[in-house]
Write a structure and sequence with these properties.
The complex is a heterodimer of chains A (about 170) and B (about 100). Helices cover about 35% and strands about 15% of the residues of chain A. Chain A is of the alpha/beta class and about 170 residues long. Chain A has a single domain (about 20-165), classed as 3-Layer(aba) Sandwich (Hypothetical Protein Ychn, Chain: A), CATH 3.40.1260. Chain A is globular and about 85 Å long. Chain B has a two-stranded antiparallel sheet with strand order 1-2. The longest helix of chain B is centred in the middle third of the chain and has 17 residues, at about 45-60. The N and C termini of chain B lie far apart (about 25 Å). The chains are: A alpha/beta (about 170), B mainly alpha (about 100).
């Protein structure tokens, strides 16, 4: 006699929405900074809470003296589809950056200084990483006024509690 | 797309409740969508943003970006988020009876 086994029902979890994100920006190139800003802005546009935590060269995006001068990495970037030596030609990175910025302006992506202001006005909180700030010998004076604080890793995790962490 | 009743008017909406036919829109519909989305009362500032979104969509075929909204609507970005905490571009489009904005900015 055969006996029918009752198949266990798969447990389907409730679909969850994202309520909060903390985005870590660790790179100081144009292609390192923009995705984080676009994701932070996009989060706010969906009503999602967003924090930006800048570390290592990512700090360039919030440094008064550097945030207007962020460039595309034309060396060591396979995505450029260029021989390394051409990417290294003086002025090439500036040219590639100029061309990319023109394309971005066409689709309404603001330059980095304006974008930092836009995300801060949208309610994104901006923080600098304490370890890197100490390592580079920086102070709050070096940062744009939108930066709220310098945080240790532990403090960052406290702020990020209950949300998703994205590393770029 | 489904047909539904908003402010006693038959309208077509998408899965998220955005009107798919902007022509079916009215101010009474706008007020009811606003109430259902956490805005109990539409102030002049709300109307300014909603009308700007709607007009821009009807003339260009696309909803403005949050950047354009902040620069050109007459309401700065900070205030946009105070008026529409759950996302100004998205919510103003919904209240204004136009499709959900597709851009990333």
């Amino acid at each position: 006699m055969t006996e029918l086994l009752v198949e266990p029902q798969a447990v389907v979890p409730e679909p969850r929405t994202i309520e909060k994100v903390a985005i870590v920006v660790s790179k100081g190139s144009l292609e390192g900074v923009y995705p984080a800003l676009i994701m932070a802005n996009g989060a706010r546009m969906e009503g999602i809470e967003a924090d930006l935590f800048f570390t290592f060269f990512g700090l360039d995006a919030i440094r008064k003296d550097r945030y207007g001068k962020i460039k595309v990495a034309t060396v060591g970037n396979p995505g450029m589809h260029l021989p390394t030596l051409i990417g290294a030609v003086p002025g090439f990175s500036a040219l590639a950056t100029k061309m990319m910025k023109r394309q971005m302006e066409k689709i309404d992506i603001p330059p980095i200084p304006e974008f930092i202001e836009l995300v801060a006005d949208s309610g994104v909180r901006l923080y600098a990483c304490k370890a890197t700030v100490d390592m580079f010998g920086l102070t709050m004076e070096d940062f744009v006024p939108q930066v709220e604080d310098v945080l240790s890793v532990g403090e960052f995790y406290e702020k990020a509690a209950g949300g998703e962490i994205i590393f770029t | 797309m489904t047909a539904t009743l908003i402010a006693d008017t038959a309208v077509d909406v998408d899965a998220e409740g955005f009107l798919t036919e902007p022509i079916q829109w009215s101010e009474a519909i706008a007020e009811e969508i606003a109430r259902d989305n956490g805005i109990p009362e539409m102030t002049d500032r709300h109307w300014l943003v909603v009308r700007f979104m709607r007009e821009r969509y009807l003339t260009t075929g696309a909803a403005p970006s949050i950047r354009a909204l902040g620069k050109e609507s007459g309401v700065p970005v900070k205030e946009l988020y105070e008026l529409f905490p759950k996302g100004p571009a998205k919510l103003a489009a919904k209240i204004g009876g136009i499709p959900k904005p597709k851009g990333c900015i």
